[in-house]
Amino acid sequence: MTEAFGKGHHLHLIDGSAFIFRAYHALPPLTRKSDGLPIGAVAGFCNMLWKYIQGGKPSDQPTHLAVIFDHSSKTFRNDIYPLYKANRPPAPEDLRPQFPLTREATRAHNIACIETEGYEADDIIAALSCKARDAGGRVTIVSSDKDLMQLVGGGVGMLDPIKNKDIGPDEVREKFGVGPDRVVDVQALAGDSVDNVPGAPGIGIKTAAQLIDEYGDLETLLERAVEIKQPKRRQTLIDNADLIRISKQLVQLDCDTPLDFTLESLELRDPDPEALLDFLTRMEFRTLTQRVADRFGAEAPVIVEAATVATASAKVELPPIDRSLYTIIRDETVLAEWLAEITQKGIVAIDTETTGLDEMQADLVGVSLCTGPGRAAYIPLGHVGEGAAGDLFGGPTLAEGQMPLERALALLKPVLADEAVLKIGQNIKYDCKILARLGLKMGPIEDTMLMSYALNAGEHNHGMDELSETYLGHKCVPIKDLIGSGKSQIGFAQVPVERAGEYAAEDAEVTWRLWHHFRPLLSREHVATAYEVLERPMVPVLAEMEMAGIRIDADHLRRMSSAFAQKMAALEEEIHGLAGGPFNVGSPKQLGEILFERMGLSGGKQGKTGAFSTSADVLEDLAAEGHDLPARVLDWRGISKLKSTYTDALPTHVNADTGRVHTSYSITGAQTGRLASTDPNLQNIPVRTDEGRRIREAFVAGPGMKIISLDYSQIELRILAHVASIPALKQAFRDGIDIHAMTASQMFGVPVDGMDPMIRRRAKAINFGVIYGISGFGLARNLRIPRAEAQAFIDTYFERFPEIRAYMDRTVAEAKQDGFVRTLFGRRIKTPGINQSGPAAGGARRAAINAPIQGAAADIIRRAMIRMPDAIRDLPAKMLLQVHDELVFEVEEGAVDDLIRIARDVMENAAEPAIKLDVPLIVDAGVGANWAEAH
DNA sequence: CCCGTCACG
DNA sequence: GACGTACGTGACGGGA
């Protein structure tokens, strides 16, 4: 018989989220030894819970106890103010699967575990505090969250669990300058940048407290705002009265949050040793298990690890890969068993097989899963009958022994979306997109390709077959063995199920093994942060952009193609006339022979293949000497390039279902952290010539929409100014003056006003050259000036800006010593060729100088992109493209200004809080009906 | 399949 | 003093 809660009782309410985040940040990224499941925050959480229920002052011992969690990010406050908590970054990927485990941990300790849909933990804590106080009992809120301080008083106190310090009315007054009953008024005025509570601009806690103190309460203050003496403050309060009232609603905690349990049900209970030990053993917490066992006088259960992670210190060889162990999953019962095992383990390697490489078109053929060495399976779903050319009506018949696609997807769906199950893939963006098109969301995710990239960019590529050979010593079955190559190539759906299963399940197992290989290396080699912050979060962002695609005016391109074809035909005729006979103008070989043998022109340079060079450089020189043929060939080439690569090719990339063009971004394609765009490449659409720029007119916004382009101004030079710490350059960027003119002025001692454009052009070339690891030869060629002159410019440049030489020397020395360089944000790029001798060393040296600069710029735009979806989620806008220093959006006409404001803000502040740059980042914006207008 | 060429940042 | 050379990409057509 439980006694009614009342006088003499003491309810403790633990703020669960605070415990979790505290535990997560206080501990290194521990993983469960048997399978690598991230578990650090759970360990810390259990430790804190245990200490809490064991320790404490006897007089303050709880009689009733509950841990309260936030249920989800969306609450009723978002209906009042959509931007509430909009700035919150999503929880780290390796923390997300731990959230459900902390709930389990709470229940394992036999403590009430409370969360309510649509409410924050704070709301439940408030309602419970009111109820307990009204019943005559005492309450202690275990949290240091200032939002809860309004609840203090009348038998309700707070305890800061980190400092182990009581928070009473005096402490609240110290923090807010007012008593607990006026805390919300002060918060409403001051706002909160962390939760994105707007408040009144320019008013902080100090001013707010002073105003509330003077006028008594918020409503009185707002009503009598006209009486305020300071004109600016008076106007702010009058202008923002509504926003302030909304802010108050956001911070106000009410007593009437619905509770579907009684205070009595929170009565402190002893843990059930068996349940608690079972949980701790499953998590493989040795110390905690022992401690709890000791406390209960029980024998600590032996922790058996199913598998052992291979580490450098204790490398345990896994058995070799054995394809005969794999299972083909043909019915729902077997699939359900596998999914149960996956849910229990909390981790799975996954791979999808499809009919093609274009993930916007390919159909799913099968899914493979792996939960451990030798424990892999393949679910065939779309294989066609063996030898069957099709049924009587021409449609392909499905092979026997496959479960219906819809059933398999329905069973997979909750597991793929389960926050507590980590999904590991190799290039998992591909699988995410295939599954997303079938209505399946996948998360949280890990990607072995990205792990390899974080560890070894610059060292080698990151395809699975290569990684498997290098790190597992295992040669994968080449896909060509199954589908052939060239003309006789077949689709994966035509591969017999048994054969496909071996191949597909092997891929999943290799992925699983690679994950176990790479995961401990990330923190050991100090690239875990780069992986977590710069690589992994890109997956959902890019998947969304790629699936959005961009609208193309194919007719516009086709018209251009026809016009180009006519021009080319005319030029061809003219060229043949000049050459004295027909030849293939597109053949450098034939052209070289005509120019340098038949016509006997000078300047013929033969490369290593023995062929004459006919590059634009060479032809331009010849044209400048007055020869017509090379000039016409240059014209022809320009048009030919535009036609074949753009106006002809782009319309073929329009997706039949969406009517848009969907590029694919490679996250690991470039060594520096830049993205690479393929199929089609939308990062090299012409812009430098008027004719080329017309191709951008074909990239159009939908009806009622606009294209917006936002690009960083001079980002690499700004980064150079920061990393090399060049005072003159930094000051120029702070003052917003023309950077190339400034450089020229410093170098040649001429004033910026009325500067010869030629002088500025030279300075600009040097500024860019520096970023690339300048050489006299390269600059001479770029500027078409004698090499000695170019060298003299460079010498002057280094004299004027000695910090640049120091930076270059420093970077090369670092690369030689460590074998890698790092960007400001911790991205690591290996420099394998740096210690070579001979000509190859020059290239490696320049690459090492360039990588931290190009890489930091890439890091910054990645950071912006990762924050962008959340920042613009309430706008009718989509992020479509990235072109290294530019982001392209499509937005409804009415929201253009909002988008520019918000996206620019995200981009300009993207370096923070990781790095506070010494120079400002500036973003230029353009709007139009198409990309040409917007750029 | 490699090479030369050329589009972009 | 000679090597070779601006940094990072992807797509196309020609030709073996």
From TrEMBL:
Molecular function GO terms recorded: 3'-5' exonuclease activity; 5'-3' exonuclease activity; DNA binding; DNA-directed DNA polymerase activity
Domain (3'-5' exonuclease): residue spans on this chain: 326-523
Catalytic activity, reaction form: DNA(n) + a 2'-deoxyribonucleoside 5'-triphosphate = DNA(n+1) + diphosphate
The protein's Enzyme Commission number: 2.7.7.7
PROSITE patterns for this protein: DNA_POLYMERASE_A (PS00447)
5'-3' exonuclease domain span: 9-269
Keyword Glycosyltransferase: no
Stored InterPro entries: 3'-5'_exonuclease_dom (IPR002562), 5-3_exonucl_a-hlix_arch_N (IPR020046), 5-3_exonuclease (IPR002421), 5-3_exonuclease_C_sf (IPR036279), DNA-dir_DNA_pol_A_CS (IPR019760), DNA-dir_DNA_pol_A_palm_dom (IPR001098), DNA/RNA_pol_sf (IPR043502), DNA_polI_H3TH (IPR020045)
SUPFAM superfamilies: 5' to 3' exonuclease, C-terminal subdomain (SSF47807), DNA/RNA polymerases (SSF56672), PIN domain-like (SSF88723), Ribonuclease H-like (SSF53098)
Record-annotated DNA-directed DNA polymerase family A palm domain positions: 692-895
UniProt GO BP: DNA-templated DNA replication; double-strand break repair
Keywords: DNA damage, DNA repair, DNA replication, DNA-binding, DNA-directed DNA polymerase, Exonuclease, Hydrolase, Nuclease, Nucleotidyltransferase, Transferase
Role description: In addition to polymerase activity, this DNA polymerase exhibits 3'-5' and 5'-3' exonuclease activity.
Family statement: Belongs to the DNA polymerase type-A family.
Quaternary structure and interacting proteins, as annotated: Single-chain monomer with multiple functions.
Protein name in UniProt: DNA polymerase I
Species in which this protein is naturally found: Paracoccus aestuariivivens
